[in-house]
Amino acid sequence: MAGSQQTLTSLLRQTHLAHRRALTSSGSPHPHTPVPTPVTYYRGGTSRALIFHPTDLPRTPSLRSTLLLQAIGAPDPYSRQLNGLGAGVSSLSKACLVSRSQNDPDADVDYTFIGLGIEKPEVDYAGNCGNMSAAIGPYAWEQGLLPSTAYKEEGQVTVRIRQTNTGTLIHAHFPVARGQPVVDASTRIDGVSGLGTPVRLDFLQPGGAKTGRLLPTGRAVDELLGLRASIVDAANPCVFVRAQDIGIRSTAPPGDIMSQPGVMARLEALRTAGAVAMGLVKEGAQVPRVVPKIALIGPRAEQIVLGGAVVRAGDVDLVREEGGRRPLWLRHL
């Protein structure tokens, strides 16, 4: 419901680096002179992103976009991003801006998410990333962005985050000890090797985060391109369709789905139709890279996850496979 809270448990792992890239746009130094730009490289859930302080980036939007694209290695016609820190998939081609909150007494930090293109020079501010939201609290802690009182005690910490793309509030809860987020030996996530910090996210009043309504069309079920679909805006706008209506298994690995161009084209067509139906874009306009998401729903079923563990049918209520333009990933609910 619109007034409820949604809770997500995710993980993060971080490394730190100073990335040096050359800006060639007007107003920059010599076009072959690298410009040092501080940046931190974090994993949140099953995504990774470059996290910047906004004051370290150019104020001019075009120069800022140029730097972000160069740092991630886009555009790259080979889809590998070897000249940057991306890895050829959208879940690893992202950036975040984090700073002390200036305008909201209910928030400690402001967080802006940016989806970056791979083959094209796309810089998309249209929506949020739930995975990277898990990294923002620990990042703010380690960067000293929180009030001094937050550093006086150890144990469970709460960071209040204003998500600027959607205008919503998120509370991040995680443990700290000896001055840093705790890496829990029992905290793991399927599809990610190694360990991380357990982070619980509370999305406060997530309904209508982008469109202003939990059900943007006013209906629980709509028809899109001849298929029954549910269009829901909760933290991020999403189009839900039944996997069987697309002709695929809801438990199919993401790679199997992405290897079928016809299926991917149909999913993108549904995503586009959903964006128009919920008022995100007008008919014929370019749909943002980040939203809406598309989710494939299926009945409970036994599934072998990427880590090799077996999730039995009786342990889940349904299977949901979700993604933006690409790729898709599997969630058991």
TrEMBL record:
Keywords associated with the record: Isomerase
Domain of life: Eukaryota
GO molecular-function terms, A-Z: isomerase activity
Keyword Iron found: no
SUPFAM superfamilies in the cross-refs: Diaminopimelate epimerase-like
Matches recorded under InterPro entries: PrpF-like
Pfam families: PrpF
Tagged with keyword Isomerase: yes
Similarity-based family: Belongs to the PrpF family.
Protein name: DUF453-domain-containing protein
Biological source species: Trichodelitschia bisporula
Lineage: Eukaryota, Fungi, Dikarya, Ascomycota, Pezizomycotina
